[in-house]
Amino acid sequence: MSHDSNLTGRPVISSTGLFTPEGTITNEELVESYNRYVEIFNADNAEAIASGEVEALQPSSVEFIEKASGIKARHVMTKAPILDPEIMAPRLRERSNDELSVMAEIGVKAARQALERAGRDVADVDAVVCAASNMERGYPAMAIEIQQALGIDGFGFDMNVACSSATFGIQTAADYIRSGNARSVLVVSPEITSGHLNWRDRDSHFIFGDVATAVLVEDVAVAPKQHWDILGTRLKTVFSNNIRNNFGFLNRASPEGEGKPDKLFVQEGRKVFKEVVPMVAEMIVTEAERLGIEPQTLRRLWLHQANAGMNRLIAQRVLGHEATPDESPTVLDTYANTSSAGSIIAFHKHNEDLAAGDTGLICSFGAGYSAGAVFVRKVA
Fold first, then answer.
1. Total-model pTM
2. Which residues are catalytically annotated?
3. Percent of residues, the chain, with pLDDT higher than 70
């Protein structure tokens, strides 16, 4: 990138993009498949269950899922194999190295929409940050493949802070703008979370869905007339084992652990709820005060879409009253938890009705623990 003397170093969000897979699984379909698996497992292990060697599996229910999470459905890349009691995992054709990989493909779709909505030519973009909770491979970086597919002359890299990847990516992009090292940065979050979910675990089989989002962060000097000023960003991490996935390149060095449940998503849900809600609420209020924003004047909260109960509590602590659906919109009912993409989907779908001067907050929280807050104000 050539250093442009007209650049201001003030970062804004110019646009967002969203790719939604066609396949959807309702709670009813999910429960039917899971309970069929339970029947088969309990029948196959009847003797061991009777003798007390093996614990019988318990069926799931639509009521249990909705009460625990607020989720009613989720989008997935491959529906049939997930619902097949013999498979209960996504199945994607292995692509050759000459083909665009699946994460890059959906990331590119979201990125193209963001560029189109901002009227931005790819020649004007300097960098791609692929910010997601899982990467398809070790290297080369997904971001560089996305960069190449889009035709961007610049640089790209991957980053993973689990559910907070996108907000951490936005701050990283904003910092490139502030330092003058870039004028236009794409933050792309392709989240194929169906791949890390244990569809055979009653406590979590309903949690995740697949999606891809993109956020175009730019210097205000090159941004379209209608954009969102980034007023301030705040990141926080505190180590915890309460949300964990031990899948990694060293798994084959410890063959005794291969195929164990901890090589997929595992969590202590109640502990997460209890510990993350106060941490996030405090971070938001502290950063709002630093920026001179009264938290109760925030027009809308675009919160991480993991759990309706958590969002209700966080919004109440920030706003000082129970948030209306208008103040804290929900997308997790139809998208489920899409990891780092959730708050971006909420922002993408629920920002156009706001007026110039309205202030809002994009906020994520999750494994790490990690939390990210991006305060924004609508311009034009």
1. 0.96
2. 163
3. 99
